[in-house]
Structures are given as structure tokens and as C-alpha cells.
Amino acid sequence: MSTPTATTDDLHAGYVHRPIRRWRGGEVAQLTDAIAEEVPIALVYNERPHVVMMATPRDLEDFALGFSLSEAVIAQAHELEAVGTQTLLEGIEVRLRIPPVCAEALEARRRNLTGRTGCGLCGAQALEDAVRQPAPVAGGPRIDPATLQRALAQLHERQPLNVATGATHAAAWVRADGDVALLREDVGRHNALDKLIGAMSRAGEDVQQGFLIVTSRASYEMVQKAATVGITLLAAISAPTALAIHLAEETGLTLIGFARREGHVVYSHAQRMVGALPESTS
């Protein structure tokens, strides 16, 4: 992916400061607080608007690349060229160029989404757009509970936006030894994952050599995005949905929920989690 001619990442820390009145212990204090930003981000492919997502305006190059890969707009990172990023009164517009064959396929899908932090489907024009089935995943690492706990213990210190604002989700790429290699934050869990996928692609991370942790529930779309780029294990801090479990089972992805200090729950393809299956007695 080429470097954009302009970027907003240097202009946006992802939060702003606002005066507040905090009531605590029966006393009121006038303070300045850090508030997470949430603005419309428009992705425009080959001069044609495709999607508007409400997102935190940082790591936008990662977001554009990750969204393009996880939504199967492109198959390889080199197919995406960033033309420019422009801050407008209404939001931020990211202009991108993709090969004609990708543009034709995108037009055929006739998707024009208007996303929100809790929904990436709004505007999907057909059921097959809403519930897209990724190709099956295979391989990937086999981890034990200690490895998962090692990764979870690193999450807090790697989330400066959430530490400052208390309002963002995170998606982290974890090496097979439990060390967090990359992490991205956003007010929307889908956006955080897209940003992470973009960062992983740019860094050359091998999806066979690690696993994913998200600080949110595991919706079907989180499973869909992970499987689309070949990730084999997704651990979520909160619960999965029934459709997420079904999609994980169908695609071969190991889905873990309620991943916390006191334990975790394995919902699909338990063979990648040590101790999740009964030991053979034969």
C-alpha cells in the first residue's frame, strides 16, 4: 500500500479534552477530561464512495487496508493504493485506488454501507452481503491457558486510548508465545480489528504464527473478518453470539469467549487449546 499524499494521523490523537464537572463523594470538581473522538470516516474506492464508518480518527492507513482485506475488497495488500486523505467539515475522506477487476467485483456486490460503532451491516443490500462465508482456515498455533493469560496480562498497558478515555475497544495480535506484537484501538470493535489487520499486513505478520484477542463480545462479523484473512484463533473478553459460533464452526476457527483472569470458554475447534479436550484413555 502506497503512502498517502496526506494523513490525519499526526493531527488526531484519538481523543480531545473537554471541561467537565465530576461529582464524587458528595463533592463537585471542575476538571478537564479526555474524551474519545468518533467521526465519520468515508472510504472512497476509484472515486466511488463505498462505506462510511463512525470511527476514531487515528491509524487510518491501517484501517483502510484492514477493511479492504477483511471485507474482501482486495485479496492482497499490494492491490490497494492510498491516493489521499482529506479532512472535511463533515468528517474524513480516505481516497483509495484498486485494480479494475476488484472495482468491478465491488460494484457487482452493490454494497453501500453506513456503519456505526455497534453495527457493520447497515445498508447491506442482500442477505449474501450480510452473512458472507469466508474460506475455511487451517493450521495455526496450539496454545495453553498460560499463554492466553500472559497475553491478557499485557493488554491494559498497551491501550493508551482506553486508559485516557475509558471508551475504546482494542484488538491485539499475539505471538504464539503469548507476547502481544501489535494492538490497535477504536471506539468501534470492528474498526479496531480492521486497523489491526491492516497493521499486521503492513508489518508482514504471519497469521499462522499467532492468535487474536479482542476486548469486546465476539460478533459473527468479528469471526468473519478474522477468518477472511486466515486467522485461526480468536479470543474475546466477552461472550460470542450464536451466529459467531456457527460461523467459527463452519470456517474451522477456534473461538474462545469470556477470556479473563479466572478462566475462559472454548466454543469451537477446541483442538487448538491445550486442555480443552478430554485426554485419550487409549
Q: In words, what does this structure look like?
A:
It is found in: Cytoplasm. InterPro entries: Cytidine_deaminase-like (IPR016193), FdhD (IPR003786). By secondary structure, the chain is an alpha/beta fold. The chain folds into 2 domains: 92 residues, Ubiquitin-like (UB roll) (Roll), CATH 3.10.20; 128 residues, Cytidine Deaminase, domain 2 (3-Layer(aba) Sandwich). Helices cover 27% and strands 30% of the residues. It has 8 helices and 13 strands. A 6-stranded mixed beta sheet has the order 9-8-10-11-12-13. Strands 5-6-3-4-7 form a 5-stranded mixed beta sheet, covered by helices on one side. Strands 1-2 form a two-stranded antiparallel ribbon. Helix 1 crosses helix 6. The radius of gyration is 19 Å and the shape is flat.
Task: Name the descriptors.
disordered N terminus; about 280 residues; alpha/beta; about 25% helix; molybdenum cofactor biosynthesis
